[in-house]
Structures are given as C-alpha cells and as structure tokens.
Amino acid sequence: MNDLKTILSKLDPITLKEMDSVSLMNRTDTKYIFRIEQLPSFIEEIANDYKILDVDGNRINSYETLYYDTADFQMYIHHQNGKANRYKVRFRKYIESELNFFEIKFKNNKGKTFKQRIKLKEENTQIIEKAETFLHEKTFYKSEELYPKLWANYSRITLVNKIFPERLTIDINLQFKNESGQKKLPNIVIAELKQPKRTNTSFVEVMKKHRIRTSSISKYCFGVIFLVENIKMNNFKQKLLNLNKINYDSL
C-alpha cells in the first residue's frame, strides 16, 4: 500500500469541482478485474495521462453504498438473465467529502449507462421524502416495493484523463455485508472506465498489454451471490470462478 500511495502522490491533482466537466452521467462503462499487486505498476504506466481526484489531501477515498431491490431480487435477476433496460437503485456515502446521494442507474439495450442522483442531507436507509419522489419520477418502482439488501464498501481511486472525456475508478478493499454476514475481497481490484463511447485510451492499452479481459458483472451482483443463499446465478458462474481465481491465486 505504501508503494501505491507513493505512486499516487506523483500524479497531478484534480478537485471535485473541476471534475464536474467529466461527470459522464450518460456513458459507456467498461470493467476490468485484476490482482491488487498489479495495481502500482499499472498506474505507473498511465501516470502521465491522468490526473487524480484529491479530497483534502486524500487520494484514496472511502465509499459506502447501500443497494435496494425488491423482495424477490428483481433487479439482480434482470442482470443475471441479461435483460436490457434495467435499473440499479442505491444510497451512497462519500466519507471524506461528507456527501450523501440517492442514485438511480439505468442501462439500456444499447449498452449505455445513465446515472441520475440527488444530494441528501444525511444517511437514511429508507426511501422517503426527496428520495421517494425522485424514485417515482425516474423509475416504475414504488418505494414500498424496495428494501435495503446489502452494503458494498470500498476504497476508491478516481483518475481523470488529461485529454479525453474519460474517468477511471479503481476500487480496492472491497467488502460486502448484510444482516446475515460479510465477505471481504482484499486481493481484488475492480477498475471501471467511464467514457462517452469506447475509446482505446492508455489504460485500455495497458489492459490489453497485460491480457486483462473485460468483465460485465456488477459489485451488487457479486454481493448478492456471496451473501444470499439459493439465489439464481447460472449465468454468473464463470465470472465467479474467474473472480475467485484472481482473489486466491498468487501471481
């Protein structure tokens, strides 16, 4: 971790306000999963092309995300079945910046992701007031149909391309938890490129160079698989095998 922090300290900083120009709420997402030991060298390879989000001196920031779903996990099942035009609904806490948001993500049948969110004054696990109105405006779900299902907590490094409209989020120290237990993935990195359209920028080239393949499964779906017994997961089995191989195998 010290080596990683040293490398991150060398990148040019960008503030939250400056990042507004690359919010990319309408975008294409591309995910990659690899070992934590590989991360420092990957960042070194792209360091000249990206700025790093700096929040009051913190370049690794903590996120806590609560996902909602129906009683029968309809949103999860839609993803598992490969359904297009699907939603994710979540509450997110940005710890260092002390911000809270209620967020809705929609993925259409062309692979585009649309994220909309509203700021909340404080944490509330219930969908009420502003969040309830927002949910009814943006989805067909009713607040009484959705329940808090699990927390996905992690540390995030956010990089912004100096030339292209592109953000790269790098999530480490992943932990899923609900009322029945928790699952930690200390060896895993989930990196996600957010672009208006898929472009071969320097991070993509690094992934190709090191033969890191894309992965389409979401953190929420991983959390459900780990924490919910007897959940349907046929279409995720290979992805889960790949994740466990990365998490437990040594380089």
Structure report:
With 251 residues, the protein is of the alpha+beta class. The chain has one domain: mRNA Triphosphatase Cet1, Chain A, CATH 3.20.100.30. 24% of the residues lie in helices and 37% in strands. The chain has seven helices and eleven strands. It has helices at 2-8, 39-46, 74-80, 129-138, 202-209, 219-227, 237-248, and strands at residues 12-14, 26-35, 50-53, 61-69, 86-94, 99-107, 112-120, 147-161, 167-178, 181-185, 188-195. An eight-stranded antiparallel β-barrel has the order 2-7-6-5-4-8-9-11, surrounded by four helices. The longest helix has 12 residues, at 237-248. It is globular, with a radius of gyration of 18 Å. The mean pLDDT is 92.
Cα shape: globular
CATH superfamily: VTC, catalytic tunnel domain
Low-confidence segments = none
Query: What is the straight-line distance between the termini?
Result: 17 Å
The number of distinct helices, counting runs of at least 4 residues, comes to: 7
Radius of gyration: 18 Å
Indicate the CATH class. Alpha Beta
Keywords for this structure?
251 residues, alpha+beta, mRNA Triphosphatase Cet1, Chain A, globular
Could you write a compact summary of the structure shown?
This protein has 251 residues and is α+β, with helices and mostly antiparallel strands. The protein has one domain (2-248): VTC, catalytic tunnel domain (mRNA Triphosphatase Cet1, Chain A, Alpha-Beta Barrel), CATH 3.20.100.30. It is built from 7 helices and 11 strands.
Write the layout of secondary structure elements.
Blueprint: H1 2-8, E1 12-14, E2 26-35, H2 39-46, E3 50-53, E4 61-69, H3 74-80, E5 86-94, E6 99-107, E7 112-120, H4 129-138, E8 147-161, E9 167-178, E10 181-185, E11 188-195, H5 202-209, H6 219-227, H7 237-248
